[in-house]
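Q: How do we represent a protein-ligand complex in a form that can be generated token by token?
A: Start from the inputs.
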Amino acid sequence: MSHILILPGDGIGPEIVQEAVRVLRAAEQRFGLDISLDEAPVGGAAYDLHGDPLPQSTLDKARAADAILFGSIGGPKWDTIERDKRPERGLLRLRSSLGLFANLRPAILFPQLADASSLKPEVVSGLDILIVRELTGGIYFGQPRGIREENGERVGFNTDVYSESEMRRIAKVAFELAGQRNNKVCSVDKANVLEVTELWKEVVTDAAKDYPNIELSHMYVDNAAMQLVRAPKQFDVIVTGNLFGDILSDEAAMLTGSIGMLPSASLDENRKGLYEPCHGSAPDIAGQGIANPLATIMSLAMLMRYSLERGDVADAIQAAVEQVLDQGLRTADIYTEGTRKVSTEEMGAAVAEALARG
Ligand code: NAD
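Then emit the structure tokens for the protein with nicotinamide-adenine-dinucleotide bound:
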């Protein structure tokens, strides 16, 4: 039996996770999966209940689970509470407590949505990039950090730090995944300015020696940001650190038209993972029943592929999503004239039905 922990979180989190669970139930039925589900509070919801965005009981359940399906966290309600108790800190702590160092963010343009991209269809059609972002190191975690008084004014500071072993293990993940795709890895750095990424470039180059079939290239982050909107199809796998990966993956998200279409996986050394949409809690549309649940549903597909090793189930979920898009169903964020606008629930139910039908 596989144990999956559901962490709905805040804002649209509970709405979209509910639809992913609906699809999970359909997958269980069709494939005879043996899954136990548990649920726990995280983020602002957990702060309201327990005064902590990652209560010990939630962390214990996360440690015990085989995989975690996560909605989203945060919202204006918690933006002004003490920094350590903010929802985002709960998620950072969860990622680092579980050692989830490899963040996989695919950016795939569905042919049905080519019009939704802000770029010309010929620039993005057929786009299939995988961004591999280091998730538990770098400037988001480095010490010292803070805001202090200096010469009568406040000074803010953070530290970008990576050990050689952290660099090597994320490079290996990128090379291995590229081997299952188009055998190309582009490592993104700022080696001309930052020593930490000078070392990054050196270590990634050395790690590549074990993967002779992989074509490795290097690119400065400013150029990568430009190339992603100029000629995104030149990339197969992009590997980079925490900060650059955060920004570039959101940029890649926009190439596909909607952030509501992008799943992600965060894996540890043993492929236990936390699966979540790339977007946040969208407080502006929470509670309206209009959020796009497809990123979360495709995160469930990634969970099946990487943590449960059920590539067949993952493929079937992806196919069900494509079928529903083919039928012209669209949530508001991907709606274009001539298609049918549906609610969060209608979209989830349609994917579950398509999956059940097979
Ligand atoms: P956001 O991703 O929540 O929203 C950005 C825009 O995209 C909004 O207009 C929103 O309505 C839209 N959007 C996002 N997801 C959508 C979906 N599934 N369907 C349709 N539209 C969608 O980013 P933000 O507004 O910068 O942040 C809101 C809150 O989310 C903040 O508190 C932030 O800290 C938090 N956040 C959480 C995560 C996470 O849980 N991993 C990630 C990013 C931001």
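The two ends are 23 Å apart (CA to CA). The chain has two domains: 1-103+262-358, 128-255.
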